[in-house]
Amino acid sequence: MIKAITGTKDILPSDINKWLHLEEVVRKLFTCYNYKEIRTPIFEDTSLFARGIGEETDIVSKEMYTFIDRGGTSLTLKPEMTASVVRAFIEHSLGASQPLNKLFYISPMFRQERPQAGRFRQFHQFGAEALGSQSPLLDAEMIQLPYFIFKELGLKHLSVKINSLGETEIRDKYKKVLRDYLSDKIERLSPESKKRFETNILRIFDSKDETDIQLLKEAPKLIDYLDDKSRSNFETVKQVLKDSGIPYEVDTQLVRGLDYYTQTTFEIVSSKVGSQSALCGGGRYDFLVEELGGKSTPGVGFASGIERVLLALENEDALSLPERNVDIYIIRIDETASKYLHRIANELRNQNLVVDFDYLSRSMKAQMREANKFNANFVLFLGGEELERGLFTLKNMKSGKQDMIGINTIFENIKEFLEKLNAAKTT
Ligand code: HAM
């Protein structure tokens, strides 16, 4: 039997309501903050990600789904959205018509990581990118947005971690300091950290190795080397979070796994999802647009993994969603019903009612059973001698009360029918 590829997941009808609800909350919040949706292709030129995210990052060096198409072009399924959004921003000169572009997305992403709880090979992110301003108010907004989305969804066990990586020169200076500090400890570092010592020394802070963690405890902190501008921006971010009632902790080792960050970085983690605890991450990237060939434009953004958020909601038992019931289930008493069935169903569906009936030529008893299974609010009995007199019976399934209604009410006076339906709902 052919099965779904490891690390991918079917979203079945029994799960879809959670996804739709999450997407609705996400869209509502982004709209209230005046962000506009952007959609970009699933695959891009491989060099976009190599240049944008950084050759030495885990994503680019180990995790991308890259393939050569029949025309000989190297393509990659997008592992994240920031590089794609920036590419679209440059390609369509979005900066020319608007000094500040506030954009959001909801999209599948692809990374060939080792699958585990909360980690997939095809996963989904919602996120935002604001291009065109250096204001730290936007850095704070990128923390507020996911935090308020998580809160509105019902999550409680959240912690917000923030850090500042400073400007590039400061970071370069600090890398030297860190290299000096670690130079006599290299032998004790894990093999992965030894490699990172050479290629991308800041990423040593991402190590989960106990010895590495101990060695780094006493290491000099990047935050102590910050330039004045980064320091003052960081203070503003913290102040806005305070004003917004968002608790946070400064995590001086939060470097994040992508190369484009400058100044503010952050993550929101949940204590309820196991080791893959980051529900979202992001930060400022003031040089990415330029690096990808555009005019110098500052940017800041975040992205959140939807599967992880849903897992956190499930583990916190925080999401209970009412299913939309069938409003009216039409029961065919006999063949005479067929003449009116579709006209009635269409008229009612036009009124935005959920209407269903039997497609399997089942007995009345079985039709009734299905109406109950769908939790139908009403059952409409159609056919028999009643129908010959131009009538049908409408039964309120909650109260058991029945009404006889003229079939013409639906065709000629649907308003009157809806009023009757509403009145019947409350009886
Ligand atoms: P990231 O930290 O690589 O950042 O991913 C953001 C979020 O996506 C993670 O916190 C996690 O919730 C989710 N995620 C990542 N990988 C997986 C996976 N394999 N399975 C399930 N969920 C996953 C970025 O992607 C940046 N583009 C964020 C950003 C936007 N920075 C600035 N703007």
Task: Briefly characterize the structure.
With 427 residues, this protein is of the alpha+beta class.
User: Which CATH class of the largest domain?
Assistant: Alpha Beta
Distance between the termini: 52 Å
Q: How would you write the strand order of the largest sheet?
A: 1-5-6-11-10-9-7-8
So what's the overall shape? Answer: elongated
Q: Which ligands occur here? A: histidyl-adenosine monophosphate
Reported for the largest beta sheet, the result is: 8 strands, mixed
Q: Structural class, from helix and strand content?
A: alpha+beta
Helix content: 40-55%
Helix count, per DSSP?
17
CATH architecture of the largest domain: 2-Layer Sandwich
Please mark out the parts with pLDDT under 50 across 5 or more consecutive residues, or reply none.
none
Overall tally of structural domains: 2
Mean pLDDT metric: 95
